[in-house]
Amino acid sequence: MGLIDGIYAVLNKRKEDDEFHTELTRTDIIKCIQSEKVRFRGVNLSGLDLSKLDLSYVDFSYACLKNVFFSRANLLCAKFRDVDAEASIFHNATLRECEFTGANLRGALLAGACLQSANLQDACLVDSSFCGADLRNAHLQNADLTNANLEGAVLEGANLKVRYYGPI
Protein backbone atom coordinates (compact mmCIF):
# COMPACT_ATOMS: atom_id res chain seq x y z
CA MET A 1 0.00 0.00 0.00
CA GLY A 2 1.39 3.40 -0.97
CA LEU A 3 1.52 6.49 1.21
CA ILE A 4 -1.47 8.12 -0.47
CA ASP A 5 -3.55 4.94 -0.12
CA GLY A 6 -2.57 4.77 3.56
CA ILE A 7 -3.63 8.37 4.15
CA TYR A 8 -6.98 7.78 2.45
CA ALA A 9 -7.51 4.63 4.54
CA VAL A 10 -6.88 6.56 7.76
CA LEU A 11 -9.14 9.44 6.71
CA ASN A 12 -11.96 7.07 5.71
CA LYS A 13 -11.61 5.19 9.00
CA ARG A 14 -11.86 8.49 10.92
CA LYS A 15 -15.06 9.35 9.08
CA GLU A 16 -16.53 5.94 9.95
CA ASP A 17 -15.50 6.30 13.59
CA ASP A 18 -16.83 9.84 13.92
CA GLU A 19 -18.98 9.64 17.04
CA PHE A 20 -20.61 13.02 16.57
CA HIS A 21 -22.54 12.54 13.32
CA THR A 22 -23.07 16.30 13.08
CA GLU A 23 -26.12 17.25 11.05
CA LEU A 24 -24.90 20.67 9.85
CA THR A 25 -21.59 22.31 8.96
CA ARG A 26 -20.20 25.69 10.03
CA THR A 27 -21.13 27.01 6.57
CA ASP A 28 -24.73 25.79 7.02
CA ILE A 29 -24.89 27.58 10.38
CA ILE A 30 -23.59 30.84 8.87
CA LYS A 31 -26.27 30.67 6.16
CA CYS A 32 -29.00 30.02 8.75
CA ILE A 33 -28.05 32.85 11.12
CA GLN A 34 -28.69 35.37 8.38
CA SER A 35 -32.41 34.60 8.81
CA GLU A 36 -34.73 36.55 11.10
CA LYS A 37 -35.42 33.91 13.80
CA VAL A 38 -33.07 30.96 14.07
CA ARG A 39 -33.87 27.67 15.81
CA PHE A 40 -31.59 24.66 16.11
CA ARG A 41 -33.88 22.90 18.58
CA GLY A 42 -32.90 19.25 18.98
CA VAL A 43 -30.25 19.40 16.25
CA ASN A 44 -26.92 17.56 16.63
CA LEU A 45 -24.13 20.12 16.18
CA SER A 46 -21.49 18.20 18.14
CA GLY A 47 -17.88 19.01 17.44
CA LEU A 48 -18.54 22.09 15.28
CA ASP A 49 -16.40 25.23 15.37
CA LEU A 50 -18.88 28.08 15.90
CA SER A 51 -16.29 30.47 17.31
CA LYS A 52 -16.57 34.21 16.71
CA LEU A 53 -20.06 33.94 15.16
CA ASP A 54 -23.01 36.17 16.06
CA LEU A 55 -25.49 33.61 17.39
CA SER A 56 -27.47 36.04 19.51
CA TYR A 57 -31.10 35.04 20.14
CA VAL A 58 -30.58 31.58 18.56
CA ASP A 59 -32.62 28.76 20.13
CA PHE A 60 -30.44 25.67 20.71
CA SER A 61 -32.88 24.04 23.18
CA TYR A 62 -32.69 20.23 23.40
CA ALA A 63 -29.73 20.18 20.96
CA CYS A 64 -26.65 17.99 21.22
CA LEU A 65 -23.73 20.42 21.48
CA LYS A 66 -20.99 18.13 22.79
CA ASN A 67 -17.49 19.52 22.18
CA VAL A 68 -18.77 22.56 20.27
CA PHE A 69 -16.28 25.43 20.07
CA PHE A 70 -18.17 28.66 20.91
CA SER A 71 -15.05 30.65 21.84
CA ARG A 72 -15.59 34.44 21.47
CA ALA A 73 -19.06 33.88 19.98
CA ASN A 74 -21.86 36.37 20.64
CA LEU A 75 -24.64 34.29 22.20
CA LEU A 76 -26.61 37.15 23.76
CA CYS A 77 -30.04 35.90 24.89
CA ALA A 78 -29.52 32.50 23.25
CA LYS A 79 -31.56 29.55 24.57
CA PHE A 80 -29.78 26.39 25.72
CA ARG A 81 -32.65 24.76 27.64
CA ASP A 82 -31.92 21.06 28.33
CA VAL A 83 -28.99 20.93 25.88
CA ASP A 84 -26.20 18.38 26.12
CA ALA A 85 -23.13 20.64 25.84
CA GLU A 86 -20.68 18.40 27.65
CA ALA A 87 -17.05 19.52 27.19
CA SER A 88 -18.03 22.48 25.02
CA ILE A 89 -15.84 25.58 24.96
CA PHE A 90 -17.42 28.97 25.65
CA HIS A 91 -14.10 30.72 26.39
CA ASN A 92 -14.58 34.53 26.30
CA ALA A 93 -18.07 34.12 24.81
CA THR A 94 -20.88 36.61 25.39
CA LEU A 95 -23.64 34.63 27.13
CA ARG A 96 -25.47 37.52 28.72
CA GLU A 97 -29.11 36.71 29.61
CA CYS A 98 -28.83 33.19 28.15
CA GLU A 99 -31.08 30.39 29.34
CA PHE A 100 -29.26 27.20 30.35
CA THR A 101 -32.09 25.71 32.45
CA GLY A 102 -31.49 21.98 32.90
CA ALA A 103 -28.46 22.03 30.59
CA ASN A 104 -25.62 19.52 30.79
CA LEU A 105 -22.41 21.58 30.82
CA ARG A 106 -20.27 18.91 32.47
CA GLY A 107 -16.60 19.68 31.83
CA ALA A 108 -17.41 22.83 29.84
CA LEU A 109 -14.94 25.70 29.64
CA LEU A 110 -16.61 29.05 30.38
CA ALA A 111 -13.46 30.91 31.44
CA GLY A 112 -13.67 34.63 30.78
CA ALA A 113 -17.26 34.33 29.55
CA CYS A 114 -19.84 37.03 30.22
CA LEU A 115 -22.80 35.28 31.87
CA GLN A 116 -24.48 38.35 33.37
CA SER A 117 -28.11 37.59 34.24
CA ALA A 118 -27.83 34.11 32.69
CA ASN A 119 -30.21 31.42 33.95
CA LEU A 120 -28.29 28.26 34.90
CA GLN A 121 -31.01 26.86 37.15
CA ASP A 122 -30.87 23.06 37.54
CA ALA A 123 -27.85 22.89 35.18
CA CYS A 124 -25.13 20.26 35.53
CA LEU A 125 -21.91 22.28 35.90
CA VAL A 126 -19.77 19.43 37.27
CA ASP A 127 -16.05 19.88 36.48
CA SER A 128 -16.75 23.10 34.54
CA SER A 129 -14.41 26.09 34.59
CA PHE A 130 -15.72 29.60 35.21
CA CYS A 131 -12.28 31.17 35.84
CA GLY A 132 -12.60 34.92 35.47
CA ALA A 133 -16.19 34.62 34.22
CA ASP A 134 -18.72 37.39 34.87
CA LEU A 135 -21.67 35.77 36.68
CA ARG A 136 -23.20 38.96 38.05
CA ASN A 137 -26.92 38.49 38.73
CA ALA A 138 -26.78 34.95 37.31
CA HIS A 139 -29.37 32.42 38.50
CA LEU A 140 -27.69 29.22 39.70
CA GLN A 141 -30.50 27.76 41.84
CA ASN A 142 -30.08 23.99 42.25
CA ALA A 143 -27.19 23.90 39.77
CA ASP A 144 -24.68 21.12 40.43
CA LEU A 145 -21.36 22.93 40.92
CA THR A 146 -19.40 19.85 42.05
CA ASN A 147 -15.70 20.42 41.28
CA ALA A 148 -16.52 23.58 39.29
CA ASN A 149 -13.68 26.10 39.20
CA LEU A 150 -14.96 29.59 40.08
CA GLU A 151 -11.54 31.16 40.67
CA GLY A 152 -11.67 34.86 39.86
CA ALA A 153 -15.33 34.69 38.83
CA VAL A 154 -17.49 37.73 39.62
CA LEU A 155 -20.54 36.50 41.55
CA GLU A 156 -22.01 39.83 42.68
CA GLY A 157 -25.80 39.49 42.95
CA ALA A 158 -25.74 35.85 41.77
CA ASN A 159 -28.38 33.51 43.20
CA LEU A 160 -26.58 30.44 44.53
CA LYS A 161 -29.44 28.84 46.48
CA VAL A 162 -29.18 25.07 46.51
CA ARG A 163 -31.27 22.26 47.92
CA TYR A 164 -29.63 20.16 50.59
CA TYR A 165 -30.62 16.49 50.77
CA GLY A 166 -28.04 15.28 53.30
CA PRO A 167 -28.45 14.73 57.04
CA ILE A 168 -29.04 17.77 59.22
What does this entry look like structurally?
This is Pentapeptide repeat-containing protein. This protein has one domain (1-168): 3 Solenoid (Pectate Lyase C-like). It is globular. The mean pLDDT is 89. The chain is largely without helices or strands. 13% of the residues lie in helices and 0% in strands. It has two helices and no strands.
The share of residues in extended strands comes to under 5%
> Secondary-structure element sequence?
HH
**Which range best describes the helical content: under 10%, 10-25%, 25-40%, 40-55%, 55-70% or over 70%?**
10-25%
Class of secondary structure makeup: little secondary structure
Counting DSSP E segments of at least 2 residues, the number of strands comes to: 0
Shape: globular
InterPro entries: 5peptide_repeat (IPR001646), Pentapeptide-BTB/POZ_domain (IPR051082)
Protein name: Pentapeptide repeat-containing protein
Organism: Sphenostylis stenocarpa
Pfam families: Pentapeptide
Task: List the main descriptive attributes of the protein structure presented here.
5peptide_repeat, 13% helix, little secondary structure, Pentapeptide repeat-containing protein, Pentapeptide-BTB/POZ_domain, 168 residues, 0% strand, Pectate Lyase C-like, 2 helices
Short description:
This is Pentapeptide repeat-containing protein. The protein is mostly loops and 168 residues long.
Q: Secondary structure elements and their pairing?
A:
Layout: H1 3-17, H2 26-32
Pfam families: Pentapeptide
Protein name: Pentapeptide repeat-containing protein
